[in-house]
Amino acid sequence: TKITFVSPDGTETEVDARDGDSVMHTAVSNGITSIVGDCGGAMACATCHVFVDEAWADKTGTRSEGEEDMLEFAATEMQPTSRLSCQITITPDLDGLILRIPEAQA
Ligand code: FES
């Protein structure tokens, strides 16, 4: 499953993601350094904040309440499509997914 990370400066990085992995884990293991994942995916750090491309927002699903609470502490203000990337699991359906990295994490 191919997913693309877009930096605030517009640089796109396509990575080959393994189904079942989280987006956060995929980013970390592919050297996307602006996604840190400090808490290891426990929804306790918000350093894995991403903006899901509008066209994909339906497919990645909605934020849970706990996720939303954590996003309030993210370094960059939450947007309508903000997600904690550790809470998005890669599935074949997400092939082509585009995620933007918030300014403050670049
Ligand atoms: Fe910490 Fe996602 S990795 S909240």
Summarize the structure.
The chain is an alpha+beta fold. 17% of the residues lie in helices and 20% in strands. The protein is built from three helices and five strands; from the N terminus they run ββαβααββ.
State the CATH class.
Answer: Alpha Beta
Q: Taking all residues together, what is the mean pLDDT? A: 97
What is the general shape?
A: globular
The small molecules bound here are:
FE2/S2 (inorganic) cluster
User: Radius of gyration in whole Å, from Cα?
Assistant: 12 Å
Determine the CATH superfamily: Beta-grasp domain
Task: Tell me the number of helical segments per DSSP (H or I, 4 or more residues long).
Answer: 3
Give the domain tally: 1
Indicate the structural class. Answer: alpha+beta
CATH arch. level architecture? Roll
What's the arrangement of strands in the largest beta sheet? 2-1-5-3-4
Number of strands: 5
Low-confidence sequence ranges: none
Main sheet characteristics: 5 strands, mixed
Overview of the molecule:
The protein is 17% helix and 20% strand. It has 106 residues and is α+β, with helices and mostly antiparallel strands. It has a 5-stranded mixed sheet. The radius of gyration is 12 Å and the shape is globular.
Question: Which short descriptors sum up this protein?
Answer:
single chain; 106 residues; alpha+beta; Ubiquitin-like (UB roll); five-stranded mixed beta sheet; 3 helices; 5 strands; globular; binds FE2/S2 (inorganic) cluster
